[in-house]
Specification:
By secondary structure, this protein is an alpha+beta fold. The protein has helices spanning 39-47, 80-133, 138-151, 173-191, 196-208, 218-221, 228-234, 237-246, 253-261, 282-297, 308-319, 325-335, 403-409; strands at residues 6-8, 17-19, 33-35, 52-55, 159-164, 343-346, 351-356, 366-369, 381-383, 392-395, 417-422. The chain folds into two domains: 6-77, no CATH class; 118-422, Hypothetical protein af1432 (Orthogonal Bundle), CATH 1.10.3210.10. A five-stranded antiparallel β-sheet has the order 9-8-7-6-10. The radius of gyration is 26 Å and the shape is elongated. The mean pLDDT is 90.
Length: 426
């Protein structure tokens, strides 16, 4: 790799991209590589005792002053009081970064635990779906256990947050979709105040909602231009699902109803029975909206993939009439303004990936920040509730970002969710 040129700190000016060689915790900046924004950052570098830094011509908007040339408007040296104030500000920022670093370590432990739980749930779901497709009644018990284990987190006092789960080497297909729908559906059921037993039932129905698709030929399932006969066959999958589950004594009739009616709409244009209004059970609506959201984020082959934030916006604009008004409002609040898996731009022009939402402060989620030439494992994650100087400016579609940014932040082709419980504030 080519060695970058050096320059004296006193020759820096706004617009020069520099690369610090200090450990991240030893300086007060959020990044070790950044474009100088103002004279205050240059004064901070001087206060750190840094005489020279490396700068990157390719990433700079301007160049440092030539060696031997003094700035035309050299500022007077800071007074004793100004130096003390700057030193205090630097130390305060270092302390904030140390607290953030500890929070990141905790966050990574939580992520690892959630990913282990996700793997266990995925394995159990995979076995349950396969058993039911073979007509084995034990599959229903396995599905109920997955849903019960997940629902155990949903106490009345629990604040449950949506968590982005790392992709795995294999394509999870129906298993990943079933788990995503279960996670979102149970969280939504908890948010609208359903009791524990009902949350378990919603989760079981969510895991099993597409079981009838095993009777639909893949040539029909994945056809993006079905003819009328193929569409009619596709719309039978909820009916087939209910039929497959009728022989399973462990499943209540209400769970089988949700499987049959998860594509029904309060507007009356759903299927297979064209139910309308309150005739559509709340549990079926909950599973239905979770299913539709995940189908937009993780579509079948050949269909357009929506970023999570765009998926919510699409549902709001085009399909909110399909859901009870208060349920759709609860769903939007649950998923958040910037759902996990969203690319965002921050107030300092940094780009990041949302890792988990924050129910109490929806505009301040956890964000993994992109830094050039830095492996994903070394990227900085920041809890935006802990820093006043960073805020999200906008969500950014992946297609508008450079490929290396997307690959570094989010190398997955699918969005996977799991839930985590945040302790109540003290």
């Amino acid at each position: 790799m080519e060695t970058l040129p050096e320059t004296a700190v006193e020759l820096l000016r706004p617009g020069v991209f520099i690369e610090l060689e200090l450990p991240w915790l030893d300086h007060p900046f959020w990044f070790s590589r950044f474009t100088i924004r103002d004279e205050g950052q240059i004064e901070t570098l001087k206060a750190l005792g840094i005489a020279r830094v490396r700068w990157n011509p390719a990433k700079s908007r301007t160049t440092p002053l030539p060696e031997g040339v003094l700035p035309s408007k050299a500022s007077p040296p800071p007074s004793e009081r100004e130096r003390a104030e700057l030193a205090a500000a630097i130390e305060a920022k270092r302390q904030e970064k140390r607290r953030q670093h500890e929070a990141v370590l905790t966050m990574r432990r939580i992520l690892a635990r959630c990913e282990r739980e996700y793997e266990q749930s995925a394995a159990a779901t995979r076995k349950a779906l396969a058993a039911i497709e073979r007509g084995h009644p034990d599959g229903a018990r396995q599905a109920r256990q997955v849903a019960a284990d997940a629902a155990a987190k949903f106490t009345p006092q629990a604040q449950v947050v949506l968590q982005l789960i790392a992709e795995h080497a294999h394509d999870e297909g129906a298993t990943g979709h079933a788990l995503n729908v279960m996670v979102v559906a149970q969280m939504l059921a908890h948010r609208v105040g359903l009791p524990q037993q009902a949350i378990e039932a919603v989760g079981t129905a969510a895991l099993l909602h597409d079981i009838g698709k095993s009777r639909i030929p893949t040539s029909v399932l994945y056809n993006t231009q079905r003819n009328r006969a193929e569409e009619q066959l596709y719309r039978l999958h909820p009916v087939y699902g209910e039929e497959m589950l009728t022989a399973v004594a462990e499943l209540s009739p209400s769970i089988r109803q949700v499987v049959r009616w998860h594509h029904e709409s309060v507007a009356g244009n759903g299927f297979p029975d064209s139910l309308k209004g309150t005739a559509v059970p709340l549990a079926a609506q909950i599973v239905g909206i979770a299913n539709r959201f995940d189908n937009l984020c993780n579509p079948p082959p050949g269909r357009k993939r929506f970023a999570p934030a765009k998926a919510v916006a699409y549902l709001f604009k085009h399909e909110r009439a399909a859901w009870r008004e208060e349920l759709f409002a609860a769903f939007v609040k649950l998923i958040g303004v910037y759902p996990p898996g969203s690319f965002v731009r921050l107030s300092n022009d940094a780009v990041g990936l949302v890792l988990r939402n924050n129910d109490r402060e929806p505009l301040k989620p956890w964000v993994l920040l992109y830094e050039p030439d830095t492996p994903r494992s070394e990227l900085v994650a920041v809890d935006l509730t802990t820093t006043a100087e960073l805020a999200i400016v906008e969500a950014v579609p992946a297609e508008k970002l450079p490929a290396e940014v997307v690959e570094t932040l989010d190398p997955r082709c699918k969005v996977r969710y799991f839930h985590d419980v945040v302790p109540p504030p003290r």
